[in-house]
Amino acid sequence: MEPGGGGGQIAAAVSGSAAGVDRLSALPDDLLAQILRPLGTPDAVRTSLVSQRWRRVWSLLPELRVPSLPGDPIRFRDALAAHQVRLRFLQVLSTGGGAADPKSISIWLPAAAARVSGNFALVVNQISPAAEEGRDGIVDLPCFQDATGIMIRLGHLGLAVPPPATGVFARLVSLRLECVWFDDPSELEDTIASRCPCLQHFRLCHSLRMYTLTVSSKTLLKMELEELQGVWELIVDTPELRELIVSRCLLDDDPIAVITAPRLESLEWKYSAGEIDESVELGEMPHLRSLGKLAFFVYGLHDLSYNRTTVQFLQRFRAIETLKLMLGYLPEINIFQYLMEEMNVLPDLAILHLMVDPNGHAFGAGTFHVLKMCTRIRKLILELSGSSDLEEPNACGTGCICEQQTNWQTEEFLFARLQEVEIQNFRGSDHEDSVVKRLFESATAMRKLKVTFDVSVTESKARELCHMFESIVTTPGVCMDFRYRNHTKV
């Protein structure tokens, strides 16, 4: 603490207290509040028992973290109302035990709304058995006119949005709602559209009864919709939106989705089978740079719906900057067919992040099937499935059909623009060695190589693999970076 900032007074007071003189109580209120700040909120409140002088000191704290739901909601409401400073952070959790009663929460929430000028968080993990799905199971949300961030998780209680007459969420930048249900979702839609003039981040997940959802906002920059359990109509009209995540929200059969987000840069659409079809309109997205992570199973039944949906989704885009694609292998594939031929086109890419989970199988054929459609990429990230222990993954055994696809070993590839290669979780198995050797034969313009070895690789093994890479990289002037165990440089 700088001289003149109270440090000298606090030191003198502590020295006096050690001599048996109570000089702490003589300090100004703001210095006493500084003493309490490192304490947890319950301990800070307990200091009110020290003396009359300390009774209201805790009410000067700008941040309160309440580890359990208040047992006496009226007393907690009155304490918040009497708090002497605006709260830049208020957090109330149910992790300390006790079940949530919607009526009790609704008693003190208006006092919280009146005091919070920063972030508010309410997390309910256990609801009262008395809470019903009717009116008794609904928490009434007041208008937080000065809050900048609201995060509410209600353990699947209902949430009632305040009526327009109560005001606007004038400073709200971030709104996160989890595990809630709405009797009338249109109330939430109207609030976002007309009563949140500064909202930039909206997250809604694990929510029920969202059969239709319309989000219209002129200010939103990021939106996350996850696990909404059966939305059949989704309308998004957000002219400034930059990032959109839609994860397993739409019904499997004939959903309707219209996305209007002309400035979108990142789209992540995690789907169930059948979610991406002609009824999903994504609109023009000229600034789109990435598509999140998509997955494709290398072996399976012909016309696998999951694969088909991935291909249909990719076909909607002519060019993007970055694509994350995971190639999955089931442990037992001899009863299935090779499916990579069903993936016959990819958007023009600059960066490909290819994640491979081989489950002990040979993965060269699937990897190079993708790479031969991406010969114009500038950067490749090849992420191999990492280990959770130090054991080698189980090999698939002799006679496995994964060895039948061998064209990748002799086909001509040329990655004339590939300048940067990053390989993650490399073990140094014979098949991994063959894949990287084949890759480097075709990467004639490479300038930078980074390899992170799997956690199972020892330092001596890592050094051996470094020499292997140095011998197979024939392009002159390549900068090489090798890492193992917690990214320690080899």
UniProtKB/TrEMBL annotation:
Which Pfam families does the record match to this protein? F-box (PF00646), LRR_At5g56370 (PF24758)
Q: Which domain of life is it from?
A: Eukaryota
The residues covered by the F-box domain are 21-57
Q: What is the protein name stated in its UniProt record?
A: F-box domain-containing protein
Species name:
Urochloa decumbens
- What is the taxonomic lineage of the source species? Eukaryota, Viridiplantae, Streptophyta, Embryophyta, Tracheophyta
